[in-house]
Structure formats: C-alpha cells, structure tokens
Amino acid sequence: MSSRIFLISLILQGLTITGCSNMRVLLAGEDVLAQPGETVEVKARLQQRNLPIFKDIEKVPIHFRLIASPPGAEVTLEEQKITDDEGAASVFLPVPREGIYKIEVLYSGSRQFESKDDVITILAVGPKKPVAVFDLDYTLTKHNWINQPKTIEPYDQDTVRVVNEISKKYAVVYLSGRPQPVHRASRRWLEMNGFPDGPILLWYPSKFRWLETNRYKKDILQSLHDKGFNLVLGVGDRKADAKIYNQVGMRAIVLNRNGVNFKNGTISPDMVQVLNWLELGSIVLGTR
C-alpha cells in the first residue's frame, strides 16, 4: 500500500491535536536485521506531532536500555544520549549471537512535551537462515491502517496461524510503506494479534519523499541482499511488491483480495497469486 492514505490520515489527525498542556510527541525506534558478530547502531527519533509535518525535537535526552537478549549473549546497555538537529539519538550495541535483542527507548517528557517510550527489535541471523518478508496493510491486515491499531483485523482467520508456522522455518521481517513515526503502534498491533517477533522496517520521511515507498522498499531489500542475508520469500498485496521482491531474487506471493488477475494477466515462475492465507500457507509450507 502507498503512503498517500497515510498522508491524508495524518493531516486529519493533526487537525484534532490542539489545546494540550503537554504537546503530543512520537518516539520511534529503528528496528534492525543484523548478523551475529556485528555492532549495530541503535537509533530512535523524537518528533512533535505538528501534523502533517513531523517537527524534530532536538537537544533532549533519550534513554536506551537493553531489556532482552539471546541466552549466552552476555551484553548490556544502559545509556543516555541527546537528540541532534533531526531529533535523532543513537548508541551502539554488539550482537554476538543469533536471536532477538530488545532495547527500550524512553523520553521522560518535560513541561512542554509528554513522555513517550518505544521498543527496538534487533534480529541477528546468519547468512544461511532463510528470511521471509511480509508487507503489512492489506497483507497482514484486512484493511489499510489509519491510526486504529486496536480495531483493525488481521487479513483473514488463518493469517496469524500461517505466519507463525512460516516463522518456524524462516526469520520474519516486516516491511511496510507506513512512515517511521507509527513504529510503536505497528509493533503493538502485531503483538496484540499474536504475530511472531521480528524487525519492522518502515519508511523514513527524512530519507525518502512522500509517496516514494516503492523506491524505499527496493533500496532496503537491495541493501539487505548486498549484506549477505538469505532473502527468499516476499509476501504483499500489490504487483509492485512482487516486482520489488523479484528484483532482489526473492520468490513473491501476492494476496489478490479482489479475486481478479493483474491487468497484464501474466504470472512468472517467481510470482504467485493467492486468494487467502490458507492457500498461501499450503504453498510456502509444502502441503500442496
């Protein structure tokens, strides 16, 4: 799904944010797919919800704390950094072993701004581990996301079960055209509905212009491919998603929720259309 819906919804939200004694802020962490032995930059960004533009909040402290790591990793992190002129702060964390690392980021608030927290996920996997990439809107979700993370439903009754089954064989990565500031809400929705843990890679407004989500997804996946990750499967709802997956050597599965073929009517060996998650699961998990 493109960023156009998000731009419109964020503008509408911004019209309602007035009269607050403590201005509303968004603290968004950047999740990372890493390799064991790598030292990872752990980054978060604090912005005022001065919509439709996110206004960076500089020169305030952000606290970073490691709250979970794989058994035997023997790493710690407890550090505070000051945001720069882009509202960003970062620290570095070695990830010696495969598995998931969780870092809590916290802004304690002030007289001017409310407090906010988020959790950053780092998934460390070796080069042989197959990676499956999932889009969010109209792929894992039944409808597009418009700031309703508690009410939006999964795509269908089999979505959560199938993704969890796939996660037993693949490392799971979520890749979406949603803007980075909604990282916290996206993470909470995935957790609330029981999806497997994994990094959520979102479009970053300072790096890409509005509506450039296809370019963003391609650049992210190409970067991961070039670093040696074993990207093998991509799931989305658009022909554009499938093309991006194919360009970096991934097999693409497209959820065709309308039950109609793409306009050109062609499906390549590396692009499969399905109508639901039950059918998708049977293909990926080899039950048919």
Span between termini? 29 Å
How many discrete structural domains? Answer: 2
CATH superfamily of the largest domain: HAD superfamily/HAD-like
Residue share in helix: 10-25%
CATH class of the largest domain: Alpha Beta
- Low-confidence sequence ranges: 11-20
Read across the widest sheet, the strand sequence of neighbours is 12-11-10-13-14-15
Q: Spell out the helices and strands N to C.
A: HEEEEEEEEEEHEHEHEHEEH
The residue-averaged pLDDT reads 87
Characterize the biggest β-sheet: 6 strands, parallel
Number of helices: 6
CATH architecture term of the largest domain: 3-Layer(aba) Sandwich
CATH topology of the largest domain: Rossmann fold
User: What is the global morphology?
Assistant: globular
Q: How many whole angstroms does the radius of gyration measure? A: 19 Å
The proportion of residues in beta strands is 25-35%
Derived structural class:
alpha/beta
The beta-strand count equals: 15
